[in-house]
Design a protein that fits this description.
This protein is an all-alpha fold. It folds into two domains: 50 residues, Homeodomain-like (Arc Repressor Mutant, subunit A, Orthogonal Bundle); 136 residues, Tetracycline Repressor, domain 2. It is built from nine helices and no strands. α4 runs parallel beside α7. It is elongated, with a radius of gyration of 19 Å. 34% of the residues are buried.
Amino acid sequence: MPTAPQSLGRRERNKQAKLERITAAASALFAEHGVDDVTTQQIAEAADIGAGTLFLYAKTKGELLLLVQNTLYVEALERGHAAASATASLPEAVLALITPIVECNRTQVDNGRTYLREMVFGDPTEPHHAEALSIVARTDEAMAAILTKHSSVDEPQALELARVISAVMFVTMAASVNAGSSTEEILSSIRSQIAVILPR
């Protein structure tokens, strides 16, 4: 008979509670002021912890942004995956997958662009950066599954093509020239670009 999972000890519960307070405080402050105008001291005060404690959970403000955005990205990926699975054509399935991701990234444009920069140039040994890269890999795998379902490309080709599509999406969202573009304009640009490379 399988044993029931043990409940967390007091120390682990305290750590989890602090992480939740940090995430909530950073999320609220970043959403209200933008990541560039928020200090780690403000986040620590809002989370009711010391600055030294904050750095045990995230060593930089970039890592704090990754901590916040990773959760939102995962939720967006799940919504996109569900929408894509109910779509019949390849172009529409690809767009169904990425639309919630683009919408999530563009909720606060500067934060979204900073998140992408941290993902690309941040320290991959930091846990929240590593998690962001893992989410990107899951996105590529979901995209590859769509490509193999709706076209004749094999799995290795599908994964390489998925990575190209992700690169198109990320560069389009991050480009300075698109900072003032609407979500619809970003999606339209991505749609036009990937139409050139999708298998017929």
